């Protein structure tokens, strides 16, 4: 793949596909990590005299403008981080986009409105998607792919535009790929993986792959209750995917056969309701009350997980251990984050929720080896899947 150092961008209009899909509370950005991660590539292009046109999606609008998914707040924050005005186009490929791009001077930056406000961005039909890609490509002379969180999507701005313009990979994607290779091709062992989040079905593919690669797999979050149910435990009203119990039993058996240590919690925080002020208590996984739901791993489990990370040389973490947004159920995630920091391992925090947890809980991001911007893309890479956005940049 060519990098931005391999192409001439001086005086040229450069379309940067970034991932600025940040969480919003109304018009307020609650975690600007992905915006900050996009800044180095944009700054590098500005410094070399490019006219930088940034594009991204935000949320999941249905192919038409939805004000709550506007990138206008992102444009303002990006400008603050760059210390320069960022012109904002109120459409993606229409009159505003063309006028905004046409006014750019060398070193200036514009942001287009949410790509998913146009149905062509996510269209399954190649012709419809290609027509939108044609209009996007017409705005620029060079394409830079730097939205790692979207490279697993066969979308117009990710897959089709690179075929229409000279293209290169941005610094963010280059860094992400270097890190992922350290988790697949050149792993320092012991290699521990921590998986959390709500649904085990979201992680089936990566678990299947990791059973052949990891030395130790630790499981928490809502997905753990399917594992506990597979072991015959009562899980009360906790999140449970009954249709995955047999698959989980197969994974536990394979792990034992392969010599992969599977580590499950020994206690959980069980609450009467999904609420911060609900009555809650620490209970053994063997004694979860039928009328309660588990919302975090317990303190003994936090210590167990940290102990299992102590001798690791490589750690990949994807998914929080509990409902970290609510203080009573944040301690398991905090214990795991601290365990990563205290280890001597190369640590990778993968996924939007895990990265948000690190920042929300007040940890220094620099204490981790790498904080990824792409949860789904990271997981699919680790599964060994082909990622359309990376394929397009290789051409």
Query: Approximately how much beta-strand content do the residues carry?
Result: 15-25%
What structural category characterises the helix and strand content?
alpha/beta
Tell me the helix content.
25-40%
Q: What is the level 1 CATH name of the largest domain?
A: Alpha Beta
Order of strands in the sheet with most strands: 5-6-4-1-7-8
Rg, alpha carbons: 22 Å
From the 3D coordinates, which CATH architecture of the largest domain would you assign? 3-Layer(aba) Sandwich
Examine the coordinates and then state which fold CATH places here, giving the name of the CATH topology of the largest domain: Rossmann fold
Counting DSSP H or I runs of 4 or more residues, the number of helices is 14
Number of domains: 2
Major pleated sheet: 6 strands, parallel
Distance between the termini: 8 Å
Instruction: Report the average pLDDT across residues.
Output: 95
Task: Name the CATH superfamily classification of the largest domain.
Answer: Phosphoglycerate kinase, N-terminal domain
Give the overall form: elongated
Number of strands: 17
Which spans of ≥5 residues are poorly predicted at pLDDT below 50?
none
């Amino acid at each position: 793949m060519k990098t931005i150092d391999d192409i001439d961008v001086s005086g040229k209009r450069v379309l940067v596909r970034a991932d600025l899909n940040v969480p919003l509370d109304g018009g307020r950005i609650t975690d600007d990590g992905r915006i900050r991660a996009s800044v180095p590539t944009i700054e590098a292009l500005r410094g070399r005299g490019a006219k930088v046109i940034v594009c991204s999606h935000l949320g999941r609008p249905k192919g038409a403008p939805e004000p709550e998914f506007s990138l206008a707040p992102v444009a303002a924050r990006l400008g603050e981080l760059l210390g320069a005005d960022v012109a904002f186009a109120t459409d993606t490929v229409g009159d505003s986009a063309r006028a905004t791009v046409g006014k750019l001077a060398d070193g200036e930056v514009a942001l287009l409105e949410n790509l998913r406000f146009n149905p062509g961005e996510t269209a399954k039909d190649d012709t419809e998607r290609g027509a939108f890609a044609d209009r996007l490509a017409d705005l620029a002379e060079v394409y830079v792919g730097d939205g790692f969180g979207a490279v697993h999507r066969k979308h117009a701005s990710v897959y089709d535009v690179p075929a229409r313009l000279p293209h290169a990979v941005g610094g963010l994607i280059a860094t992400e790929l270097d890190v992922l290779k350290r988790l697949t091709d050149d792993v320092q062992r012991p290699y521990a993986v921590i998986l959390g989040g709500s649904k085990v079905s979201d992680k089936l593919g990566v678990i299947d792959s990791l059973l052949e690669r990891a030395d130790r797999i630790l499981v928490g979050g809502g997905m753990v209750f399917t594992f506990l149910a597979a072991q015959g435990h009562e899980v009360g009203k906790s999140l449970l995917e009954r249709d995955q119990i047999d698959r989980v039993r197969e994974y536990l058996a394979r792990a034992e056969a392969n010599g992969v240590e599977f580590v499950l919690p020994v206690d959980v925080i069980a609450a009467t309701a999904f609420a911060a002020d609900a009555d809650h208590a620490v209970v053994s996984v063997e004694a979860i009350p039928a009328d309660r739901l588990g919302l975090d791993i317990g303190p003994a489990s936090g210590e167990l997980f940290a102990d299992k990370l102590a001798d690791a040389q490589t750690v990949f973490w994807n998914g929080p251990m509990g409902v970290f947004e609510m203080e009573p159920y944040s301690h398991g995630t905090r214990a795991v984050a601290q365990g990563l920091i205290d280890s001597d391992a190369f640590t990778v925090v993968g996924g939007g929720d895990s990265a948000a947890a690190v920042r929300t809980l007040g940890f220094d991001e620099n204490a981790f080896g790498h904080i990824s911007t792409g949860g789904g893309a990271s997981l699919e890479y680790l599964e060994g899947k082909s990622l359309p956005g990376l394929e397009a940049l290789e051409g």
